[in-house]
């Protein structure tokens, strides 16, 4: 009985984390809106490759972490754009990795404004690290020996992205299929709930050297959970930036203060964000770290990644 209780505790901790943030939570989505909206792909004149890594709640063993690589490009004015994302989210003994392929059609509304309609298909692989469970108690327990620790799940996402030179707004929905995920003889039994995003921002040009970009990201999860991020980024001479953000749930309970810095030189852009945890978990955590790296191919003079 003891070993079964310990196993259930491990799974419960991991499951509660995944239910809260099945899609992960990133602090620099303003630099890569593809992470929250497939309608964004092909809206940029350049072809950016984007690498990212986030480690949540440093100081806590088996805390969630994310790694991702994205690429997108415009095919033509008439055909829209395509994109791809490879990702991995892990928490405790459970990981979720996969591939996402996206297409977006962009419609020109007038000389300044456009709107993109994006659809993406995904294949997720869920993996339960049996080794971590075996270390709990008895490696010969039939609960551990029987049942699958891998599962591949298809899914789809949809987004609409409205944009112009100095402003943008979008709405999207992820995990449309709501598929059931069951591993290890139903010990891990969960459903991929839909995530909804609403985001927008405006770029103010303050003279020839400074730009100010306030932005807002709202996320609602069909597990009756919500979160909003309010950010302000200041850019100096299209070279270096400093950002400040605040994250809270819909009950206005504070979650994080976000500090970000970055630099861009020619085709390369690098950014770092540090989340100062304000919730109770901050008593045992040293905050969260996020790194991004962007390399741009093609026409960078008109790129959205060059402010």
Walk me through this protein's architecture.
- It is globular, with a radius of gyration of 20 Å.
- Helix content is 9%, strand content 56%.
- It has helices spanning 2-20, 130-134, 142-145, and strands at 46-55, 65-76, 80-91, 94-108, 114-128, 150-163, 167-174, 180-183, 188-191, 195-202, 204-206, 210-221, 225-236, 240-249, 254-265, 268-277, 288-298.
- It starts with a helix and ends in a 9-residue tail after the last strand.
- It is mostly beta strands and 307 residues long.
- The protein has one domain: Porin (Beta Barrel), CATH 2.40.160.
- Residues 1-20 have low confidence and may be disordered.
The number of helical elements comes to 3
CATH homologous superfamily name? monomeric porin ompg
Low-confidence stretches: 1-20
Task: Please state roughly what percent of the residues sit in beta strands, choosing from under 5%, 5-15%, 15-25%, 25-35%, 35-45% or over 45%.
Answer: over 45%
Average pLDDT for all residues:
84
Report the count of strand segments. 17
Topology-level CATH name? Porin
Query: Portion of residues in helices?
Result: under 10%
Secondary-structure element order, N to C: HEEEEEHHEEEEEEEEEEEE
Kindly give the count of domains: 1
Strand order of the largest sheet: 1-2-3-4-5-6-7-10-12-13-14-15-16-17
Instruction: Please tell me how large the radius of gyration is.
Output: 20 Å
End-to-end Cα distance, whole Å, is: 60 Å
- Proper CATH architecture: Beta Barrel
